[in-house]
Amino acid sequence: MFSLKDNVAVVTGAARGIGRSISLALADAGADLALIDLLIDDLEDVRAEVQAKGRKASIHLCDITDPEVVGATFNDIAEQHGSLHILVNNAGMTRDNLLIRLSLEDWEAPIRINLTGTFYCTKAAVRFMMKQRYGRIINIASVVGITGNAGQTNYAASKAGVIGLTKSTAKELASREITANAIAPGFIATAMTADLPANARKKLTEHIPLGRLGKPEDVAPAVVFLASEEAGYITGQTLPVDGGMII
Length: 247
Hints:
The chain is α/β, with parallel strands linked by helices and 247 residues long. 47% of the residues lie in helices and 15% in strands. The protein is built from eight helices and seven strands; from the N terminus they run βαβαβαβαβααβααβ. The two termini are 29 Å apart.
């Protein structure tokens, strides 16, 4: 079950954290990888790890906020790999502050990367998916896109937008056998959360029924499932991977 043999998967933000774990899990399931990020040294490391699993991997330096660069990158991926079956929109960033203190740039930065970047990559990928009448789009949203979070109005708005984008994409592309789903991680222990003070980490953990922060490896299997043939009748959904935080 959940074999991705003969599939080509594109992962944005693939160099570190959740993106790296997703890439390695997709490779374990049999997919070849096109790895997108701006961190060349880390990308090289992930490519080597994927190749060590016996899968093909290409790396692509791409600013996902530039539509022309995105379009050229996806054309290059299709040329190198011959096809494109799975897109994982994982690239993201935070710029936390209270709403009253957010500058316009602080407000726009997460939306530009998390939401608009997801739109650009999705639009570029579906041109190939529509022709082959098959595709899997998996967008990495966040539980704060469902619940909101003080100090993260910009990030929460961007991730709520990703959920709305996912639902609309699912409705538009279902007739072409393309599914679109979102995963909403809770608080995952990555570089993005590494700077949390100990008291803040303890307070967060108290609100998670499973009693711990998540790991990138907790998110990756959900991506593999949604990318698989077995998830072919699931579309437009948001799957929380949060240790029970929002129940």
